[in-house]
Amino acid sequence: MELRQLITFRTVASTLNFTRAAEVLNYVPSNVTMQIKALEDELDVRLFDRLGKQLVLTAAGQRFSVHIQSVLDKLDEARSTVHDSENLSGTLTISANEVLCAYRLPVVFKRFRSLHPGVRLIFRSVPNQELKQTLFDGTADVVFMLDETVLSTRLAVEPLLEETFRLFAAPDHPLAKLPVLQQDNFHGEVFLVNETGCPYRTMFDRSFEKKGIDSLTYLEFQNAEAIKQCAISGIGIAFLPEITVEAEVERGDLVALPWQLSDLHVYTHMAWHKDKWLSPIILSFIEAAREVLAVEEENKTV
């Protein structure tokens, strides 16, 4: 079992894509495939299942990943003691949901890359409800979650800035013309929301139930972009964080409806595993995220 095989395994486990892993490691794809095959032969166990074009860790692969991550963390810790901390190199894996990936993290990535161009960043878009598990599995170093206050005994969770959720509709929607909305105004309206199980959907349902509104018509979607486009087309009323529709509101494609969502306090959180060794790379990234998103929070209050 060679060190390069273990590093290759960790990268494939993070990207779940042989071609992407090859790009990160500067290998040809066949080299990555060959190393994983050699590792599986030596262990006499399948580490990945190839389901058509999709690659997934087997149960054995998941168990192996946890231990390998610990081994490689120790190796990174040893390396950090002999290298100049101002010239960091290595790989950092970040996971977040699609909203934060598109609207919050690009400025963080840009800042971190300007500080440490030698670090390879791997980003994985993961559904919000699955993000914690990536830390437990060791497939992510740091994750960003969009949720209400998160409590955990095993994770370090840091709220960075509060996000405002609103109801949005096309400017020619009948409700957009009303100065004040009452519960009865929503009768017969279609709401464009995330699928059941998504934290935002749970918040939405709870907010309306508190106001005694429990018989709503939904169209369910997997991503914010689809919700936005359907709202612009006049199909229904979108429930989204303000950050996702700033451009559309500025252009006049959407307007915020005058309806207050009760007791809804949602934050962009940054999290990592409490037992994980925080390498200089991870610490630098955490600090860059704090700095950049603190500026975003200040800009919101101006």
Distance between the termini: 56 Å
* Tally of alpha and pi helices: 11
Give a quick account of the main beta sheet: strands, pairing sense, barrel closure: 5 strands, mixed
Content-based structural category: alpha/beta
| CATH topology descriptor of one domain | D-Maltodextrin-Binding Protein, domain 2
State the CATH superfamily name of one domain. Answer: Periplasmic binding protein-like II
Strand order of the largest sheet: 4-3-5-12-6
Strand content: 15-25%
The assigned CATH architecture of one domain is 3-Layer(aba) Sandwich
Shape: elongated
Number of strands: 12
Average pLDDT, to the nearest integer? 86
Percentage of residues in helical conformation? 40-55%
* pLDDT < 50 runs, ≥5 residues: none
Output the helix-strand order: HHHEEHEHHEHEEEEHEHEHEEH
Which CATH class of one domain applies here?
Alpha Beta
Question: What would your notes on this structure say?
Answer:
Residues 1-58 form the HTH lysR-type domain. Keywords: DNA-binding, Transcription, Transcription regulation. Belongs to the LysR transcriptional regulatory family. This is LysR family transcriptional regulator. It comes from Cytobacillus praedii. It is a single chain. The protein has 302 residues and is an alpha/beta fold. Among the domains are: 1-82, Winged helix-like DNA-binding domain superfamily/Winged helix DNA-binding domain (Arc Repressor Mutant, subunit A, Orthogonal Bundle); 163-265, Periplasmic binding protein-like II (D-Maltodextrin-Binding Protein, domain 2), CATH 3.40.190.10. The chain is 43% helix and 22% strand. The protein has a 5-stranded mixed sheet, with helices on both faces. Strands 9-8-10-7-11 form a 5-stranded mixed sheet, with helices on both faces. Strands 1-2 form a two-stranded antiparallel sheet. β8, α8 (199-210) and β9 (217-221) form a beta-alpha-beta unit. α2 (18-25) crosses α3. It is elongated and about 70 Å long. It starts with a helix and ends with a helix. The mean pLDDT is 86.
